Amino acid sequence: MKFPNELISLLASVQWMAALTGAGASQESGLRTFRDGQSGLWSQYKPEELASPEAFQRNPKLIWDWYAWRREAIKGVRPNPGHYALVQISRKVPGFTLITQNVDGLHAMAGSPEVIELHGNIHRVRCVRGDGVAGDWEEGPDGIGLCPKCGGFLRPDVVWFGEELPRAYLAAAFEASRKCEVFLSIGTSSIVQPAAALPYAARNRGARIIEINVEPTPLTPKTDHFLQGKSGEILPELFAAVWNRQIRG
Ligand code: OAD
Fold first, then answer.
1. Residues 17, 106 within the same domain
2. For the segment 79-110, what is each residue's pLDDT rounded down to a tens digit?
3. Over the chain, what is the mean pLDDT?
4. Residue 27: which pLDDT band, with cuts at 50, 70 and 90?
């Protein structure tokens, strides 16, 4: 892609940048975006009907099994060139903050040193009664993870519909957005709040907004640069164009 000169010189000198990723950033790793259909057994359910505290209360086994299926589906999934390009960009921009709505952990796997995971991480669980987080667990007789401390059910450490986002993470995401000179929105439909408000917080403080997406979103009319295409292709090209370097595997 040929990038406008104005965009290249803006990025070449940027000191403070925030980047927000959504499911589209993982699409080229082989993961379905959130608004795609589900397969097989799970196609009869809408994610909204499964990813809620009420659903877990009603039928913990069903929800536990759905997450086990999702974890299995992302086993073996690897970061794509877009994830790696963000690691490279973070090394060039001194005040770089990476914020993600994805729960797949692929940014960390690619080597991004710090990631604000606004919607949690599917590889972790926590006790329904407390907030201790764990990366491994034992399952009880019906297959649901049990808290080693209190024996209560474990649940995935992700944000469900109707739940608040982790306060400290949300505050850090807004702080980085207000502070940045450039806000990069990548592979997100820009409709799910409060993450969708982050580029507006940046724009209200004078930041330039750059969006990378295969199709326009409600944010597109507010952007300074809309780069239409796949993030796994555009991000490495952009990095090469601005910092004059190719990314090595
Ligand atoms: P969506 O599935 O809503 O949107 C994915 C976006 O990625 C769409 O705008 C696609 O056009 C775009 N896209 C697809 N492939 C792409 C590619 N290769 N390169 C660039 N863009 C691509 O996913 P999110 O916006 O992440 O929340 O959804 C936000 C939240 O909605 C999720 O985190 C989830 C859901 O409710 C929770 O679970 C709390």
1. yes
2. 999 999 999 999 999 999 999 999 999 999 99
3. 92
4. very high
62 and 82 fall within a common domain: no
Q: State the CB neighbour count (10 A cutoff) for residue 185.
A: 28
Instruction: Assess whether 119 carries a catalytic annotation.
Output: yes
Do 163 and 192 touch, CB atoms closer than 8 A? no
- Total domains in the chain come to 2
Each residue's pLDDT tens digit, 28-51:
998 877 666 566 667 778 877 899
Ligand 1, CB within 6 Å, residue ranges:
22-24, 27-28, 33-35, 51, 101, 119, 159, 187-189, 192, 212-215, 217, 230-232
Give every CB contact of residue 6 below 8 A, 6+ residues apart in sequence: none
**Residue 236 main-chain phi, psi, to 5 deg:** -65, -35
